[in-house]
Amino acid sequence: MGIISNVLGIVAEYNPFHNGHVYQLQQAKQQAKADLTIIVMSGNWVQRGEPALLDKWQRTKLALSGGADLVVELPFQFAVEPAHLFAQGAVQLLSMLGCNRLAFGAEHPELDFEALVANQPTDASSHFKRFDETYPTLFNDYLQAQTGLNLRASNDILGFSYVAANQRLAQPLKMIPIQRRGSAHQDTGIERGTTIASGAAIRKAVKAGEWTVINQMVPADTARALRKEQLISWTDYWPYLRYQLLVSSLADLHDIYQMSEGIEYRLKQAALVSATFEDFLWAAKTKRFTYARLQRLCVYILLQVNRVALPTELRYARVLGFNSAGQQHLNRVKKASKLPLISRVTDDWINGPFRLDYQAGLMRQMLSGVDQDRLQHAVIESS
Amino acid sequence: MGIISNVLGIVAEYNPFHNGHVYQLQQAKQQAKADLTIIVMSGNWVQRGEPALLDKWQRTKLALSGGADLVVELPFQFAVEPAHLFAQGAVQLLSMLGCNRLAFGAEHPELDFEALVANQPTDASSHFKRFDETYPTLFNDYLQAQTGLNLRASNDILGFSYVAANQRLAQPLKMIPIQRRGSAHQDTGIERGTTIASGAAIRKAVKAGEWTVINQMVPADTARALRKEQLISWTDYWPYLRYQLLVSSLADLHDIYQMSEGIEYRLKQAALVSATFEDFLWAAKTKRFTYARLQRLCVYILLQVNRVALPTELRYARVLGFNSAGQQHLNRVKKASKLPLISRVTDDWINGPFRLDYQAGLMRQMLSGVDQDRLQHAVIESS
């Protein structure tokens, strides 16, 4: 094989892997003239504070058969965080894995993301002290006042965050915004005649068992996995979250990561009176908390993530799967980079830096009975 | 009404209230020439570390219709403890409620309990440091060596503990041992033709749905409650216990009350591989831990009872129910005793001394949806 010059990175959740992702992969590879494509993927919990429908191994298989060469897990410390921290971890990881291109889907790829980043407030705290709006709303208002541009669509916001994180790298990657097709990220409607819908719309169809719709919107492998495998949602975790909220003292709840503004009182009250997770969110919601922020808080409570600040530096890369090209690249990374590559999770990792990722997987294993880390080997895709 | 001179106390769990209890109440009242009978009853968790099948309010109703005049809850801090602490709290409570008689069922009421108490080792720790036997076994071996008497039957052991606790009172009560009828406490067999069986045997019949047996062994009111009400067992709590064991760090588990000898490692391992509570107990069991001790430890984990020593003094009496004679007696106690009598649980109590009892009830409410403390009023039996 020749010299690898264009290594493309994509940040993804694949919850689940659908036709829009297939299209994005194809477009990205073409525009980046990619010799190799690396996916940094959320594990068993996604950025908006929800369990992934399919586990990280099932989603890795789908990503590899959909065109990825290498899939690496975005550690929990970044995966379940607001966009700027999520992007920071993901971009750093792609960079350390030897990527020099980063493609991302955006509602408005024509936006001048660099200009937006240059205009972001240097001291965020002084601008966002209003308590009647969520942070994303205030942030967008600010940018609009500064640049006249609107940054409300969720993939535009993520794109902005990737660009901002990229600018902080010693060797920034070439950024490739790609026009998203189909409905918006959180839009749950399905358009007639299309084969592309948002993840949210597909998850809604899965919940409703609308298999005609699903079959139309996802590759056959994904449809098969969605039928065969145990799918997990907050509904499955709700009894455990509720129990933890009821049994924990207010002092212990206060010590949970990101618990702020005394919301622990509200959460405890809401847990007592709510029958379902949806009821609970509705009862707990305030104007200052987005649903995503509330849901992330719920993940921290369920996993008992303590207020002790999460490490912000990247300490390892957990390899989820690869094909032969991906494996050859991994060997090069091993030689060139100091980043530990985890392909087998030992007790030292579980009781050390990997603990939180292990816990995140253990919560899934508790429900599904399927080991997530201790016994799992990287998925090898034969091409 | 005349002067009340014989106030009888009985310590009970009524899990559930059965014909043996009816017989014991009748015998005790007769032998004590009781003017009034007070029951100190475990709440929603019993001494062996199990949830009561019926909740404390349902059991209070049955006790009142079965002949009790007043039912008071034994606080959790005593109710879920080994026999000597259980007895200490219960006897102290009966004494503070103005009892001067205490009746208890025993397998061998003819035993000289006073002599046994007099012969108990003064320094227990020096005698019981063998790690190949449980404490009860070592204790019995010791007593047998000292007195030639055998103290293996569980109600004899409780009787011994009542007598020991009684001797520590400034004004000891008159003790009235009553011959237990039917099978032994933990014997789960049912004898043909009898109408009395042990609580364990009846719970087993309930689990198996053997209604012919149950109807024969319990009063009609109990049978009705067992059919109508939600019955709770460890099977219902097992998912939550398992989750708590999996999510808690070893350090946090180590801080649980009565966690000792490094058993937290075993419990965590056992939780991962066990599908049912029975599997779990079997996997976690060691020679040094009785099943009762293990089960109590499970309650402490489920309720997150911290190692911070539980208060050993009695701080309140929670009134569960009464008839008019019981109510008149309560009024006398209010005037004569400094012990706070709780009939309504306020936030001050919940966030203060009553917290653990509240938590114990909240865990039941979580499953049944039936409030246990905040909204409940004492049961009033019209006679």
Automatic annotation (TrEMBL), chains A, B:
Chief site of localization: cytoplasm
InterPro entries per record: Cyt_trans-like, Rossmann-like_a/b/a_fold, tRNA(Met)_cyd_acetate_ligase
Annotated GO CC locations: cytoplasm
GO molecular-function term, one example from the UniProt record: tRNA binding
Keyword rRNA-binding: no
Subcellular location(s) per record: Cytoplasm
Catalytic function, reaction form: cytidine(34) in elongator tRNA(Met) + acetate + ATP = N(4)-acetylcytidine(34) in elongator tRNA(Met) + AMP + diphosphate
Annotated binding of ATP, by residue: 11-24, 105, 155, 180
Protein's UniProt name: tRNA(Met) cytidine acetate ligase
Species of provenance: Secundilactobacillus mixtipabuli
Lineage, uppermost ranks: Bacteria, Bacillati, Bacillota, Bacilli, Lactobacillales
